[in-house]
């Protein structure tokens, strides 16, 4: 019953955050469209190169579009519901985390809806590229309709993995306070690299993106089965198990880390 009341409060906080953002609807619509244009332009640069040279390391423009869009939508799902995890540094530096510690609910649950983001631009861009890529590969006979539910599945598991990486990185802030530079590596740079086939990178880097910072499990690894039929359906079972393990470990690390928190006194 206690858990149910926590999540009811979480939904209430989300609704409150949405209402506050929708007070400035023009700004919301404009920022969403600009975000979509920026994201699409990033993929178009790659598409232009692929259109000129055909394939890169055996990956077509549609396959790379698939990887790009799955990573984008997984990141969007994570950052929609837990964006403040990525911005924990400001709570640590400014002492704002002290206020959350006084609330009668778990700190993480209080933190996550603080600035609920409706990332409409990223959703539009990711969905458009994903639909285009899937449609072209279906027309070519490369994949069947089963790729659609499997893709939705890996977007959800991918969001869990990205959240776990983000939470583990944020937790290090309880010792270091400043974590922005580290987040640039573990979240931003790693995620950007994993938007493309890992075969483009040196073996040591591919190994790193599949193990220590497992962003390669979000789109690349499951796409080998969904798009190319490599391995078997056990890929999906392993992926689900890995996402659960990553989430459990990151939550345990967070629980331990928060016991080491020392207020800045500001």
Automatic annotation (TrEMBL):
Keywords: Membrane, Transmembrane, Transmembrane helix. The keyword ATP-binding does not apply. The chain crosses the membrane at residues 28-50, 147-175, 204-221, 233-254. The keyword DNA repair does not apply. It comes from the Bacteria. This is ABC-2 family transporter protein. It comes from Paenibacillus lacisoli.
